[in-house]
Write a structure and sequence with these properties.
162 residues, alpha/beta, five-stranded mixed sheet, 5 helices
Length: 162
């Protein structure tokens, strides 16, 4: 699965304002609502489902990255978004670091394979330290989208900012 198949361009945020976990999750799910891929009626249910998943163990994994995700019947296909926090979010990360880069994913419960493939694609790309460094530095949603497209196409990321 490629980023272009599940990341919603209109939901990308490059200046997340929240400073703590629940507020960040709410802000990211609201971006999916604003982009028209999640209904207002499903907003609270999706937020609560993500928070329940976080209770099982933080999706703040390492190097200032988190991948909050859930399955919810309020979506018809896998939808995701990318968010960048300039100040970092206290996300109870496994490494204790504040999170600056988020990939949020919501999948329909009846599509577990798609959910897993999307998570695998995210994880595979996040192993590339250059990709994550350059992505954290992106200033606009368009820059994020370009970097995701380059990752989908297997292009090298050599445009790191100094």
């Amino acid at each position: 699965m490629r980023f272009s198949e599940f990341i919603v361009p209109g939901a990308i945020r490059t200046n997340l304002q929240a400073e703590e976990k629940e507020a960040a999750i709410r802000e990211m799910v609201k971006a999916l609502v604003d982009a028209g891929v999640v209904s207002h009626e499903n907003f609270e249910g999706i937020v609560k489902a993500i928070l329940r998943r976080e209770e099982l163990g933080s999706t703040g994994i390492w190097r200032g990255i988190a991948v909050p995700h859930t399955k919810h019947p309020g979506v018809q296909r896998v939808v995701g978004m990318v968010a960048i926090s300039r100040t970092g979010v206290d996300f109870n990360s496994l490494d204790g670091e504040r999170v600056h880069l988020f990939f949020l994913l919501v999948s329909p419960p009846d599509r577990p394979g798609d959910h897993l493939r999307a998570l695998e694609h995210i994880a595979r790309q996040l192993r590339d330290e250059t990709f994550t460094r350059v992505l954290k530095q992106a200033q606009t949603p368009e820059e994020v989208q370009q970097l995701l497209q380059e990752a989908d196409n297997g292009q090298p990321r050599v445009r790191a900012r100094s």
